Amino acid sequence: MSLRTPAFFSLFWVQFAGAFNDNLYKNALVMLITFSLVESGEDAGFLVAMAAGIFILPFFLFSAFAGQLADRYAKSELIKRIKLAEVLIMLFGAMALIAQSTPLLLGTLFFMGVQSTFFGPIKYAILPEYLGSARLMHANGWFNASTFVAILLGTLMGGWVVMVDQGPYWMALAVVSLAIVGWLTALTLPQTRAQSPEMPLERHLWRLTWQEVVQTRTFDQAWFAILSIACFWFVGATFLSQIPVLVKDGLGGDESVAVALLVSFALGIGLGALWIVWRHPRIESLRDVGGLGRSWLLLALLVALTAWQLVSFPVAPMGDQVSHETLLTLTAFLSLPQGIMFALSLMAISAVGGRLIVPLYTLLLQRSPRAQRARVLAVNNIVNALFMVLSALWIMAVYALGAGLLTLLWMLSVMVFAVSLWSHRRRRVLQETV
Asked: Which CATH number fits domain 211-313+327-433: 1.20.1250.20, 1.10.472.10, 3.40.640.10, 3.40.50.2300?
């Protein structure tokens, strides 16, 4: 089924530019924190987890209102205004990068999260308006694959450019330029109609959030998809936020190794997403989504394998202190068989995640009422944000208790195993009620 329409083309590049810019800035911030702004590995891990929490906190706070706006007004017009706001935010972010001020960098990250909160429900909810239901699986596959290609590119450039001579200045120019490109592309989006133009706006955010969550829980299959997607983001947020610390303190690698493994992780999700689209081109209900429990079980085993590889890695065993001068370069890391195996294991983890996420997002779109689709997707963002906040708080608690990264990975493996049991049982119950 072809996706070659002007509407999808413009939307694809708008969301790609936005995802690229978000990850360019976030990874530049992570690299600055890990390798420049702080010395202690524990402090770096704490600040990186805090940054992850700051970015997704607005999703938890404002998503319900964002969903209301997306159903109340024309989504195409909202996208144009949101992308203009991104330009202004990135101008402030450029100043923060040049100043290398941690508070200003984290403040920019919060406003980026607000912008993404309002764009998030729209970019998926507008797909059926442009494409209909028959092409949703393909569109979701390309959206998710391109999102993680954007993560890949943002990771690569964010981790590399900011560490070179005059890097913060180049990064400031890049994030502002990308924001302008995204806004100009958004101006070409075809006009859409509001889905619920008479709906009154509820401005009490906490009451609105609770109402939308309660309403969405009545859509059983959509709610199952939301909880499953949130579990995926808990795992993904944990890995993405901790890979730089894992590389430096667990593998004894420098920033080039951290960038390479972040790229490996993002690439794996993209490959997994495209593979599942090829295998299952269309999903209408939960009956069409197979093997979820087995995929979660495989993911749990791969996380456990990663923890075991850290224990047996021949350089810088967990707990050892390493100086910047003795860190492994990417060439040295890949010259070790264990280094290649670790990179492949990380890619396998993310590929399984990509295999999970595309059918779940498609199921969510298919089983959401048209007039409430943006609000259901906003609830998805709220639950995702809650799980990612829990991930950040959990990581911070592990570090605060002195348990360390290795304990975190073993605990994560057990959690994912529990999700596999829940997913298998819940899917079977829902299938019997369809």
From this structure: 1.20.1250.20
Q: For the segment 315-372, what is each residue's pLDDT rounded down to a tens digit?
A: 655 545 455 556 788 888 888 888 889 889 999 998 998 888 888 888 888 888 888 8
Average the pLDDT over 38-47 and give the result.
63
Provide the whole-model pTM. Answer: 0.79
Task: State which fold the 1-192 domain adopts.
Answer: Growth Hormone; Chain: A; (1.20.1250)
In three-state form (DSSP H/G/I as H, E/B as E, the rest C), the secondary structure along 81-131 is HHHHHHHHHHHHHHHHHHHCCHHHHHHHHHHHHHHHHHHHHHHHHCHHHHH
Does 1-192 match 211-313+327-433 in CATH topology?
Answer: yes
Are 303 and 416 in contact by the 8 Å Cβ rule? The answer is: yes
Structure token pair of residue 19: 């995802």
- β-partners of residue 253 are 328
pLDDT at 1: 45
Q: For the chain, how far is it from start to end, CA to CA, in angstroms?
A: 27
Degrees (nearest 5) of the Cα angle 334, 338, 343?
A: 65
